[in-house]
UniProtKB/TrEMBL annotation:
This is Uncharacterized protein (DUF58 family). Keywords: Membrane, Transmembrane, Transmembrane helix. SUPFAM superfamilies: vWA-like. The chain crosses the membrane at residues 35-56.
Length: 444
Protein backbone atom coordinates (compact mmCIF):
# COMPACT_ATOMS: atom_id res chain seq x y z
CA UNK A 1 0.00 0.00 0.00
CA UNK A 2 1.10 3.52 -0.71
CA UNK A 3 -0.58 6.90 -0.17
CA UNK A 4 -2.30 8.36 -3.19
CA UNK A 5 -2.08 11.88 -4.54
CA UNK A 6 -5.53 12.58 -3.13
CA UNK A 7 -4.34 11.80 0.40
CA UNK A 8 -1.27 13.96 -0.16
CA UNK A 9 -3.41 16.88 -1.28
CA UNK A 10 -5.72 16.54 1.75
CA UNK A 11 -2.72 16.49 4.08
CA UNK A 12 -1.41 19.57 2.32
CA UNK A 13 -4.69 21.40 2.78
CA UNK A 14 -4.74 20.37 6.45
CA UNK A 15 -1.23 21.80 6.92
CA UNK A 16 -2.24 25.03 5.21
CA UNK A 17 -5.21 25.22 7.55
CA UNK A 18 -2.76 25.03 10.47
CA UNK A 19 -1.07 28.16 9.12
CA UNK A 20 -4.47 29.85 8.90
CA UNK A 21 -5.22 28.94 12.55
CA UNK A 22 -1.85 30.36 13.63
CA UNK A 23 -2.57 33.58 11.76
CA UNK A 24 -6.02 33.78 13.34
CA UNK A 25 -4.48 33.77 16.84
CA UNK A 26 -2.79 37.03 15.89
CA UNK A 27 -5.49 38.77 13.85
CA UNK A 28 -8.72 37.14 15.14
CA UNK A 29 -8.00 35.98 18.72
CA UNK A 30 -11.71 35.55 19.57
CA UNK A 31 -12.26 33.07 16.72
CA UNK A 32 -8.91 31.29 17.11
CA UNK A 33 -10.14 28.72 19.64
CA UNK A 34 -13.07 27.69 17.45
CA UNK A 35 -10.86 27.44 14.36
CA UNK A 36 -8.33 25.34 16.26
CA UNK A 37 -11.06 22.97 17.42
CA UNK A 38 -12.33 22.63 13.84
CA UNK A 39 -8.79 22.03 12.62
CA UNK A 40 -8.24 19.22 15.14
CA UNK A 41 -11.59 17.70 14.26
CA UNK A 42 -10.71 17.82 10.55
CA UNK A 43 -7.41 16.13 11.31
CA UNK A 44 -9.14 13.42 13.32
CA UNK A 45 -11.66 12.84 10.52
CA UNK A 46 -8.87 12.65 7.93
CA UNK A 47 -6.93 10.20 10.08
CA UNK A 48 -10.01 8.05 10.65
CA UNK A 49 -10.93 8.09 6.98
CA UNK A 50 -7.37 7.22 5.96
CA UNK A 51 -7.27 4.35 8.44
CA UNK A 52 -10.64 2.97 7.34
CA UNK A 53 -9.74 3.34 3.66
CA UNK A 54 -6.47 1.52 4.29
CA UNK A 55 -8.24 -1.35 6.05
CA UNK A 56 -10.76 -1.80 3.23
CA UNK A 57 -8.38 -1.13 0.32
CA UNK A 58 -5.49 -3.35 1.39
CA UNK A 59 -7.26 -6.39 -0.04
CA UNK A 60 -8.11 -6.42 -3.73
CA UNK A 61 -10.29 -9.42 -4.51
CA UNK A 62 -11.41 -10.77 -7.86
CA UNK A 63 -8.97 -8.87 -10.12
CA UNK A 64 -7.61 -10.85 -13.07
CA UNK A 65 -5.42 -9.92 -16.00
CA UNK A 66 -4.22 -11.45 -19.25
CA UNK A 67 -1.64 -10.29 -21.82
CA UNK A 68 -1.95 -11.12 -25.51
CA UNK A 69 1.34 -10.91 -27.44
CA UNK A 70 2.15 -11.45 -31.12
CA UNK A 71 3.78 -14.81 -31.80
CA UNK A 72 7.03 -13.04 -32.66
CA UNK A 73 8.22 -9.44 -32.71
CA UNK A 74 10.13 -7.72 -35.51
CA UNK A 75 13.05 -5.44 -34.73
CA UNK A 76 12.32 -1.74 -35.14
CA UNK A 77 8.66 -2.37 -36.08
CA UNK A 78 5.73 -1.17 -34.00
CA UNK A 79 3.83 -4.08 -32.46
CA UNK A 80 0.54 -4.06 -30.55
CA UNK A 81 0.02 -5.67 -27.14
CA UNK A 82 -3.43 -6.20 -25.62
CA UNK A 83 -4.10 -6.32 -21.89
CA UNK A 84 -7.43 -7.79 -20.79
CA UNK A 85 -8.52 -6.89 -17.23
CA UNK A 86 -11.47 -8.40 -15.37
CA UNK A 87 -13.10 -7.58 -12.04
CA UNK A 88 -15.01 -10.38 -10.27
CA UNK A 89 -14.68 -8.74 -6.85
CA UNK A 90 -17.32 -7.21 -4.55
CA UNK A 91 -16.51 -3.56 -5.33
CA UNK A 92 -15.63 -1.39 -8.36
CA UNK A 93 -11.95 -0.90 -9.08
CA UNK A 94 -10.13 2.20 -10.31
CA UNK A 95 -6.81 1.00 -11.76
CA UNK A 96 -3.59 2.58 -12.98
CA UNK A 97 -2.30 -0.07 -15.39
CA UNK A 98 1.32 -0.63 -16.36
CA UNK A 99 3.34 -3.59 -17.66
CA UNK A 100 6.68 -5.13 -16.73
CA UNK A 101 8.50 -4.79 -20.07
CA UNK A 102 11.86 -6.31 -21.07
CA UNK A 103 14.81 -3.95 -21.40
CA UNK A 104 14.86 -4.15 -25.21
CA UNK A 105 11.24 -2.99 -25.58
CA UNK A 106 9.89 0.53 -25.18
CA UNK A 107 6.42 1.99 -24.99
CA UNK A 108 5.32 5.56 -24.33
CA UNK A 109 1.65 4.65 -23.96
CA UNK A 110 1.85 3.38 -20.37
CA UNK A 111 0.61 3.72 -17.67
CA UNK A 112 -3.09 3.87 -18.52
CA UNK A 113 -6.24 4.40 -16.44
CA UNK A 114 -9.03 1.81 -16.32
CA UNK A 115 -12.34 1.78 -14.42
CA UNK A 116 -13.91 -1.62 -13.77
CA UNK A 117 -17.32 -2.12 -12.22
CA UNK A 118 -18.23 -5.46 -10.66
CA UNK A 119 -18.19 -8.33 -13.20
CA UNK A 120 -16.83 -6.04 -15.90
CA UNK A 121 -14.03 -6.53 -18.41
CA UNK A 122 -11.78 -3.91 -20.04
CA UNK A 123 -9.15 -4.09 -22.78
CA UNK A 124 -6.10 -1.87 -23.15
CA UNK A 125 -4.03 -1.83 -26.36
CA UNK A 126 -0.63 -0.22 -26.37
CA UNK A 127 2.19 -0.07 -28.93
CA UNK A 128 5.79 -1.09 -28.33
CA UNK A 129 8.90 -1.05 -30.50
CA UNK A 130 11.74 -3.58 -30.01
CA UNK A 131 15.22 -2.07 -30.16
CA UNK A 132 17.30 -5.21 -29.62
CA UNK A 133 16.95 -8.74 -30.94
CA UNK A 134 16.86 -11.87 -28.83
CA UNK A 135 14.74 -13.33 -26.07
CA UNK A 136 12.34 -10.84 -24.47
CA UNK A 137 11.02 -11.76 -21.03
CA UNK A 138 7.84 -10.00 -19.92
CA UNK A 139 7.01 -9.89 -16.25
CA UNK A 140 3.46 -9.63 -14.94
CA UNK A 141 0.84 -6.94 -15.49
CA UNK A 142 1.35 -4.31 -12.80
CA UNK A 143 -1.66 -2.32 -11.56
CA UNK A 144 -2.25 0.18 -8.77
CA UNK A 145 -5.77 -0.30 -7.38
CA UNK A 146 -7.31 2.67 -5.61
CA UNK A 147 -8.90 2.11 -2.20
CA UNK A 148 -12.66 2.87 -2.08
CA UNK A 149 -12.12 6.54 -1.14
CA UNK A 150 -8.98 6.87 -3.24
CA UNK A 151 -6.67 7.69 -0.31
CA UNK A 152 -4.41 4.66 -0.84
CA UNK A 153 -3.19 2.57 -3.74
CA UNK A 154 -2.52 -1.15 -3.59
CA UNK A 155 0.06 -2.65 -5.97
CA UNK A 156 -1.27 -5.85 -7.56
CA UNK A 157 0.46 -8.17 -10.07
CA UNK A 158 -1.85 -9.89 -12.55
CA UNK A 159 -1.38 -12.48 -15.26
CA UNK A 160 1.70 -14.61 -15.87
CA UNK A 161 5.25 -13.91 -17.08
CA UNK A 162 5.67 -14.48 -20.81
CA UNK A 163 8.54 -14.86 -23.26
CA UNK A 164 8.67 -13.86 -26.90
CA UNK A 165 11.46 -13.77 -29.48
CA UNK A 166 12.51 -10.54 -31.17
CA UNK A 167 13.58 -11.41 -34.71
CA UNK A 168 15.22 -9.29 -37.39
CA UNK A 169 12.72 -7.40 -39.49
CA UNK A 170 11.01 -10.35 -41.22
CA UNK A 171 7.89 -8.40 -42.27
CA UNK A 172 9.36 -7.97 -45.74
CA UNK A 173 9.51 -11.75 -46.04
CA UNK A 174 5.94 -12.13 -44.82
CA UNK A 175 4.71 -9.75 -47.49
CA UNK A 176 6.45 -11.80 -50.22
CA UNK A 177 5.32 -15.29 -49.20
CA UNK A 178 2.07 -15.25 -51.15
CA UNK A 179 3.69 -13.83 -54.30
CA UNK A 180 5.40 -15.54 -57.19
CA UNK A 181 9.05 -14.86 -57.97
CA UNK A 182 8.19 -12.31 -60.65
CA UNK A 183 5.67 -10.58 -58.37
CA UNK A 184 8.18 -10.57 -55.52
CA UNK A 185 10.77 -8.84 -57.65
CA UNK A 186 8.27 -6.26 -58.84
CA UNK A 187 7.24 -5.70 -55.21
CA UNK A 188 10.87 -4.93 -54.39
CA UNK A 189 11.12 -2.54 -57.33
CA UNK A 190 13.36 -4.84 -59.39
CA UNK A 191 12.98 -5.98 -62.99
CA UNK A 192 14.09 -9.25 -64.45
CA UNK A 193 16.83 -9.12 -67.03
CA UNK A 194 16.86 -11.34 -70.10
CA UNK A 195 19.49 -14.00 -69.59
CA UNK A 196 22.00 -15.14 -72.19
CA UNK A 197 20.91 -18.58 -73.42
CA UNK A 198 18.52 -20.80 -71.53
CA UNK A 199 18.42 -22.78 -68.32
CA UNK A 200 19.28 -26.45 -68.28
CA UNK A 201 16.53 -27.78 -65.98
CA UNK A 202 13.41 -29.00 -67.79
CA UNK A 203 10.25 -27.35 -66.50
CA UNK A 204 7.27 -28.19 -68.75
CA UNK A 205 5.93 -28.64 -72.28
CA UNK A 206 3.93 -25.87 -73.91
CA UNK A 207 2.77 -24.71 -77.30
CA UNK A 208 5.38 -23.34 -79.65
CA UNK A 209 5.78 -19.58 -79.53
CA UNK A 210 7.37 -17.31 -82.11
CA UNK A 211 11.01 -16.85 -81.16
CA UNK A 212 11.54 -20.35 -79.72
CA UNK A 213 14.68 -22.03 -81.01
CA UNK A 214 14.50 -25.28 -82.97
CA UNK A 215 16.25 -27.24 -80.25
CA UNK A 216 13.41 -26.35 -77.89
CA UNK A 217 10.89 -28.16 -80.13
CA UNK A 218 9.86 -31.60 -78.86
CA UNK A 219 9.23 -33.41 -82.15
CA UNK A 220 7.66 -36.50 -80.61
CA UNK A 221 5.16 -34.44 -78.62
CA UNK A 222 4.54 -32.28 -81.70
CA UNK A 223 3.74 -35.37 -83.82
CA UNK A 224 1.45 -36.72 -81.14
CA UNK A 225 -0.40 -33.41 -80.65
CA UNK A 226 -0.25 -32.52 -84.38
CA UNK A 227 1.08 -29.07 -83.54
CA UNK A 228 4.43 -27.68 -82.55
CA UNK A 229 5.26 -28.25 -78.88
CA UNK A 230 8.26 -26.62 -77.18
CA UNK A 231 10.18 -27.61 -74.09
CA UNK A 232 10.41 -24.89 -71.47
CA UNK A 233 13.49 -24.78 -69.27
CA UNK A 234 14.18 -22.99 -66.01
CA UNK A 235 17.28 -21.73 -64.30
CA UNK A 236 19.38 -24.35 -62.61
CA UNK A 237 18.27 -25.12 -59.08
CA UNK A 238 20.00 -26.74 -56.14
CA UNK A 239 22.80 -24.18 -56.10
CA UNK A 240 24.34 -23.16 -52.77
CA UNK A 241 24.59 -19.62 -51.41
CA UNK A 242 26.68 -19.21 -48.26
CA UNK A 243 26.63 -15.91 -46.38
CA UNK A 244 29.79 -14.97 -44.51
CA UNK A 245 28.46 -12.51 -41.93
CA UNK A 246 30.94 -10.21 -40.23
CA UNK A 247 30.01 -9.87 -36.55
CA UNK A 248 33.04 -7.75 -35.59
CA UNK A 249 33.04 -4.46 -33.73
CA UNK A 250 32.80 -2.41 -36.89
CA UNK A 251 29.32 -3.72 -37.58
CA UNK A 252 28.10 -2.05 -34.39
CA UNK A 253 28.07 1.30 -36.21
CA UNK A 254 24.64 2.94 -36.03
CA UNK A 255 22.74 4.07 -39.10
CA UNK A 256 19.47 5.55 -37.91
CA UNK A 257 17.76 3.44 -35.27
CA UNK A 258 19.50 0.22 -36.34
CA UNK A 259 23.13 -0.86 -36.36
CA UNK A 260 24.91 -1.96 -39.51
CA UNK A 261 24.69 -5.49 -38.17
CA UNK A 262 20.90 -5.35 -37.95
CA UNK A 263 20.66 -3.83 -41.43
CA UNK A 264 22.90 -6.66 -42.69
CA UNK A 265 20.68 -9.29 -41.07
CA UNK A 266 17.53 -7.79 -42.63
CA UNK A 267 19.14 -7.78 -46.07
CA UNK A 268 20.53 -11.29 -45.60
CA UNK A 269 17.14 -12.72 -44.68
CA UNK A 270 15.26 -11.11 -47.54
CA UNK A 271 17.81 -12.12 -50.19
CA UNK A 272 18.02 -15.62 -48.67
CA UNK A 273 14.26 -15.96 -48.96
CA UNK A 274 14.40 -15.06 -52.66
CA UNK A 275 17.16 -17.64 -53.19
CA UNK A 276 15.26 -20.36 -51.30
CA UNK A 277 12.15 -19.60 -53.34
CA UNK A 278 14.26 -20.18 -56.46
CA UNK A 279 15.15 -23.66 -55.20
CA UNK A 280 18.66 -22.85 -54.01
CA UNK A 281 20.13 -23.81 -50.64
CA UNK A 282 21.24 -21.09 -48.23
CA UNK A 283 23.83 -21.40 -45.47
CA UNK A 284 25.48 -19.07 -42.98
CA UNK A 285 28.95 -18.68 -41.53
CA UNK A 286 29.05 -15.91 -38.89
CA UNK A 287 32.50 -14.98 -37.60
CA UNK A 288 34.00 -12.63 -34.99
CA UNK A 289 30.94 -13.02 -32.76
CA UNK A 290 32.99 -12.98 -29.57
CA UNK A 291 31.57 -16.36 -28.50
CA UNK A 292 32.86 -18.55 -31.31
CA UNK A 293 31.83 -18.77 -34.94
CA UNK A 294 28.22 -19.65 -35.75
CA UNK A 295 27.56 -22.10 -38.56
CA UNK A 296 24.38 -23.13 -40.36
CA UNK A 297 24.83 -25.69 -43.17
CA UNK A 298 23.00 -24.89 -46.41
CA UNK A 299 19.25 -25.52 -46.12
CA UNK A 300 16.49 -25.32 -48.69
CA UNK A 301 12.73 -25.53 -48.90
CA UNK A 302 10.01 -23.53 -47.20
CA UNK A 303 11.31 -24.45 -43.74
CA UNK A 304 14.77 -23.15 -44.60
CA UNK A 305 13.96 -19.51 -43.92
CA UNK A 306 12.48 -20.44 -40.53
CA UNK A 307 15.67 -22.31 -39.63
CA UNK A 308 17.69 -19.27 -40.65
CA UNK A 309 15.48 -16.91 -38.64
CA UNK A 310 15.76 -19.02 -35.51
CA UNK A 311 19.51 -19.29 -36.00
CA UNK A 312 20.18 -15.55 -36.17
CA UNK A 313 17.48 -13.96 -33.98
CA UNK A 314 19.81 -13.83 -30.95
CA UNK A 315 23.04 -13.41 -32.91
CA UNK A 316 24.84 -10.17 -32.01
CA UNK A 317 27.96 -8.34 -33.09
CA UNK A 318 30.96 -8.57 -30.81
CA UNK A 319 33.81 -6.26 -29.89
CA UNK A 320 36.64 -8.20 -31.56
CA UNK A 321 38.40 -7.35 -34.81
CA UNK A 322 37.29 -9.35 -37.84
CA UNK A 323 39.64 -12.13 -38.99
CA UNK A 324 38.82 -12.48 -42.68
CA UNK A 325 41.61 -14.95 -43.46
CA UNK A 326 40.69 -17.24 -40.58
CA UNK A 327 37.00 -17.14 -41.53
CA UNK A 328 37.85 -17.95 -45.17
CA UNK A 329 39.95 -20.96 -44.16
CA UNK A 330 37.19 -22.29 -41.91
CA UNK A 331 34.59 -21.92 -44.63
CA UNK A 332 36.77 -23.72 -47.17
CA UNK A 333 37.26 -26.59 -44.72
CA UNK A 334 33.50 -27.00 -44.24
CA UNK A 335 32.12 -26.26 -47.72
CA UNK A 336 33.64 -28.34 -50.48
CA UNK A 337 30.93 -27.85 -53.10
CA UNK A 338 31.16 -24.78 -55.31
CA UNK A 339 28.89 -22.03 -54.01
CA UNK A 340 28.20 -18.33 -54.19
CA UNK A 341 29.90 -16.93 -51.09
CA UNK A 342 28.58 -13.52 -50.04
CA UNK A 343 30.75 -11.71 -47.49
CA UNK A 344 28.65 -9.06 -45.72
CA UNK A 345 30.81 -6.51 -43.91
CA UNK A 346 31.72 -2.85 -43.49
CA UNK A 347 34.93 -2.34 -45.43
CA UNK A 348 37.87 -0.17 -44.41
CA UNK A 349 41.04 0.43 -46.36
CA UNK A 350 43.12 -1.04 -43.51
CA UNK A 351 41.50 -4.38 -44.34
CA UNK A 352 42.97 -4.40 -47.84
CA UNK A 353 45.78 -6.94 -47.42
CA UNK A 354 43.84 -9.44 -45.33
CA UNK A 355 40.60 -9.05 -47.27
CA UNK A 356 42.26 -9.41 -50.66
CA UNK A 357 44.06 -12.54 -49.49
CA UNK A 358 40.84 -14.02 -48.12
CA UNK A 359 38.93 -13.23 -51.33
CA UNK A 360 41.66 -14.78 -53.45
CA UNK A 361 41.65 -17.90 -51.26
CA UNK A 362 37.88 -18.29 -51.53
CA UNK A 363 37.89 -17.65 -55.29
CA UNK A 364 39.86 -20.83 -55.92
CA UNK A 365 36.72 -22.87 -55.23
CA UNK A 366 33.77 -20.48 -54.99
CA UNK A 367 32.21 -17.50 -56.70
CA UNK A 368 32.82 -14.63 -54.25
CA UNK A 369 30.78 -11.50 -53.65
CA UNK A 370 31.64 -8.79 -51.12
CA UNK A 371 28.64 -6.76 -49.91
CA UNK A 372 29.78 -3.68 -48.03
CA UNK A 373 27.66 -1.24 -46.05
CA UNK A 374 28.47 2.39 -46.74
CA UNK A 375 28.04 4.96 -43.98
CA UNK A 376 25.25 7.35 -44.83
CA UNK A 377 26.79 10.04 -42.65
CA UNK A 378 29.93 10.17 -44.82
CA UNK A 379 27.93 10.54 -48.03
CA UNK A 380 25.98 13.36 -46.40
CA UNK A 381 29.15 15.05 -45.16
CA UNK A 382 30.89 15.21 -48.55
CA UNK A 383 27.82 16.87 -50.10
CA UNK A 384 27.56 19.57 -47.46
CA UNK A 385 29.09 23.01 -48.18
CA UNK A 386 32.36 23.89 -46.46
CA UNK A 387 31.73 26.86 -44.16
CA UNK A 388 34.75 27.04 -41.88
CA UNK A 389 38.11 25.47 -41.11
CA UNK A 390 36.68 22.63 -39.01
CA UNK A 391 34.16 21.65 -41.67
CA UNK A 392 36.95 21.76 -44.27
CA UNK A 393 38.97 19.27 -42.21
CA UNK A 394 35.95 16.99 -41.84
CA UNK A 395 35.18 17.20 -45.57
CA UNK A 396 38.79 16.42 -46.53
CA UNK A 397 38.99 13.46 -44.15
CA UNK A 398 35.71 12.03 -45.45
CA UNK A 399 36.78 12.43 -49.08
CA UNK A 400 40.10 10.74 -48.38
CA UNK A 401 38.41 7.88 -46.55
CA UNK A 402 35.91 7.29 -49.36
CA UNK A 403 38.67 7.47 -51.97
CA UNK A 404 40.76 4.81 -50.22
CA UNK A 405 37.67 2.67 -49.75
CA UNK A 406 36.77 2.97 -53.44
CA UNK A 407 40.32 1.91 -54.33
CA UNK A 408 39.92 -1.25 -52.24
CA UNK A 409 36.64 -2.07 -54.00
CA UNK A 410 38.36 -1.61 -57.34
CA UNK A 411 41.13 -3.99 -56.30
CA UNK A 412 38.49 -6.59 -55.44
CA UNK A 413 36.83 -6.20 -58.84
CA UNK A 414 40.22 -6.60 -60.52
CA UNK A 415 40.45 -10.03 -58.86
CA UNK A 416 37.07 -11.09 -60.31
CA UNK A 417 35.30 -10.56 -56.99
CA UNK A 418 31.74 -9.29 -57.29
CA UNK A 419 31.15 -6.11 -55.29
CA UNK A 420 27.97 -4.66 -53.81
CA UNK A 421 28.43 -1.25 -52.21
CA UNK A 422 25.23 0.10 -50.72
CA UNK A 423 23.79 2.25 -47.98
CA UNK A 424 22.50 0.07 -45.13
CA UNK A 425 18.81 0.76 -45.74
CA UNK A 426 19.13 -0.25 -49.42
CA UNK A 427 21.33 -3.31 -48.99
CA UNK A 428 18.43 -5.78 -49.25
CA UNK A 429 17.51 -4.53 -52.71
CA UNK A 430 21.13 -4.50 -53.86
CA UNK A 431 21.68 -8.10 -52.74
CA UNK A 432 18.49 -9.38 -54.37
CA UNK A 433 19.27 -7.57 -57.61
CA UNK A 434 22.84 -8.93 -57.69
CA UNK A 435 21.67 -12.47 -56.96
CA UNK A 436 19.02 -12.31 -59.64
CA UNK A 437 21.49 -10.91 -62.17
CA UNK A 438 23.85 -13.82 -61.51
CA UNK A 439 20.99 -16.31 -61.73
CA UNK A 440 19.75 -15.00 -65.04
CA UNK A 441 23.24 -14.84 -66.51
CA UNK A 442 23.86 -18.50 -65.65
CA UNK A 443 26.87 -17.89 -63.43
CA UNK A 444 25.20 -19.77 -60.57
Amino acid sequence: MRPSRRLGKLLGYWCLAALAVSAARIWLPRAADGLATAWWCAGALLLGAALLDWLVGRKVRGAEGERQLPGNLALGVENRVRLTLRNFGPRPLALLVSDQLPDQLRSRALPRRAQLDCNQEAEIDYPLVPHHRGRADFGRIEVLADAPWGLWQKKVLLGKPQTVKVYPNFLGISSLQALSTEQSLRYLGLHQQQRRGEGMDFRQLREYRRGDSQRQVDWRASARMRKLISREYQDERDQEIVYMLDCGRRMRTKDGELSHFDHALNALLLSAYVAIKQGDAVGLHAFATGSGDSELPPVKGESGINLLLNHVYDLHSGTANSDFSGAAQQLLARHQRRALVILVTNLRDEDSDELLAAAQLLSRRHLVMVASLRETALDTLVHEPVRDFDSAIDWTAARDFLHRRARLLQQLRARNVLVVDSEPAQLHMALVESYWRLKRSGRI
